[in-house]
Structure formats: C-alpha cells, structure tokens
Amino acid sequence: MFPWHGASIWPSVFCLILPLLVAGCRGKEEPVYRGQPLSHWQQQLHDADSAKRLSAMEALTGMGKQALPALSAITEALQDADAEVRCAAADLMAQFALERLASADPLRPLLSDADAAVRARAAEMLGRVATLDPALMESYEKLLADPAATVRVTAARAMQRLSPAAKQPLPVLIELLSDPEGSIQAEAARGLTVFGVEAKEVLPTLIRLLESPNPEVRTAVADAIGSMGTDARPATAALIAAIPHAASPGEVLAIAKGLVATESPAAEAIPLLQEQIPKYAAMSGFAPMMNDLIATIRAHSN
Fold it and tell me: Which positions ≥6 away from 90 have C-beta within 8 Å?
C-alpha cells in the first residue's frame, strides 16, 4: 500500500489547503469603510437624498485608492443635482488624477457649472493636476471675468500654477485686493508674489492692507511686499508698525523677511522683532531664523 492511501492523510491535507482557501476568499472581499462594503457606498450615490449621496462620496473619498472600482459612479456624480456632491466628486477625481489612476478631463465641464463653488473647485483641482493646453488656458481666461470673486481668484492662481509666466492674472489679482472678503484678499496677495516687482504699482494698496484686522491678509501682504525687493522700500515704516500686531510666527517671519528684502535701514524694528522671539519659542527653528533675519536688518541699518 502506498503511504498516501487511507483516511489518515486527509486531515493533514485539509490543514495545508485551508489557509490557501481562506486567503483566496479574502482576496475577493470588497474593501470596507465604516462597516459597509464598497458596493454599498457606490449604490448610495444614487439615493434620492442628497445628504446620503454626499455621505457616500465622503466615504469613497475616505477609501482612497480602494474606491477606484467605483470610478464610473464617481464620474457620474460630477453631474449630480447637488453642488456639494459635485464638489466632493471633483475632489476625489482630482486625487485619482494626481496619483495617475484616472484622467482629470471629466473635471473640465465643471468649469462652466451653474454653481460658483463648483466652478471654483474645478478650477482649483485642474490647476493642481491638469496639463496645460490652449483649451484649458482659454477656459481659465474666461473665468478671470467670472461674476464670483472666489472663481476669479481661484482661476488666476490655477493659471499661475500651470503657467507661471502668464500675465493675464495680474490685473485680476490687483482688483481682488479690494474685495471685502479677507480670504480673497489674502489669496490675491499670494498670487502677487509670483509677479514680484512687476506688481509694484499696487504697493500703496499693500501698505494699506498691512493694517487689515485679518492676520491671514497681513501675512500674505507682507510676503507680497517682500517679493518686490528694494522697490518696496516705501513700505518699510508700515512693516515696522505691523510688528507689534503680528498674531502668529508666520506673520512675524513674513514681516522680518519683507524688511530684509527692502534692504532699508530699519534699526527701530530690531527690538520689536526681538520681543517676538519668546512668544513663539516653542516653534522649532523660529528663534534661529529670527536671529538671522535680525542680524541682516542690523547690517542694513549700519
């Protein structure tokens, strides 16, 4: 009789193949999020309740790459009746495009969406993941004249990411410095740093905005002033006056860097900046950076 004859061998064989069978079954299981499989969230994208559709899109976003099998349903959600769902779908599509798992092209129709928030989101996402081409640039140029300020500033900044040499955003960014919304002003100021001295005509407006009650605006404005180099020397007094009102280490650093960039004598700024160091001592690297900047300001002041 051969050694494998008889029933005694089968328990051993079963023990050997059972892990393989279990592993094979697990390999076919759907990814699960919040206790529900992918198919559940994919189906919920078609629910009559927009809140449930949005919840489904948030779940798929949380699943990341594991949600890729639902790409068709996610693409359909870009045309959802609810703007929040469309925005959420745009975010996830952009993430897939960024990871080279899908094309960003389905986002392009959203640039002409009826909802301003969706247009802005699409402009932002495409600015991060798309490849510049004449058609996309033309779409962005149209958005620079959009009635919604948030769309105009987002389009301008997206154009700068795709084509840093583009000049079309400059007049739009200058105009948006006068927007009543602080976040719009701040983003416009950030965009001006790309132009540097080319935007020096707006220096008086930037000086005025250093007195903004919004610290985000003040920080972005200080950066924009610094980007103009020595042409921003008329802003020296305003930069010094802004130091005691700084509300964050980032704002203090932006002001100090602005003073360094202007190369103006600013000895009176030194004790004011030194007073800021203990406030943010817990921030790693803050004190050394400040001391280096102060040393440069002192050298310019001698």
Answer: 78, 107, 110, 118, 121, 122, 125
Phi-psi region of 35 (alpha: psi -120 to 50; beta: other; left: phi over 0): left
Residue 300 lies inside a defined structural domain of this protein: yes
Return averaged pLDDT per consecutive 10 residues of the chain, 302 residues in all: 48 49 55 95 97 97 96 97 98 94 95 98 93 89 96 95 92 96 97 96 97 97 98 97 97 98 96 96 94 97 92
pTM score, whole prediction = 0.82
Q: Assess if residue 275 is contained within a domain.
A: yes
Residue 211 DSSP one-character state: T
User: Rounded to whole angstroms, how far apart are CA atoms 112 and 39?
Assistant: 31
Cβ count near 47 (within 10 Å): 13
Per the structure, how many domains does the chain have? 2
- Domain ranges, residue 287: 171-302
Residues 198, 293 within the same domain: yes
Q: Are 266 and 300 in contact (CB under 8 A)?
A: yes
Residue 202 belongs to some domain of the structure:
yes
**Residue 252 forms part of a structural domain:** yes
Do 204 and 290 sit in the same domain of this protein?
yes
CA distances from 179 to 30, 176, 194, 232 (A): 49, 5, 20, 23
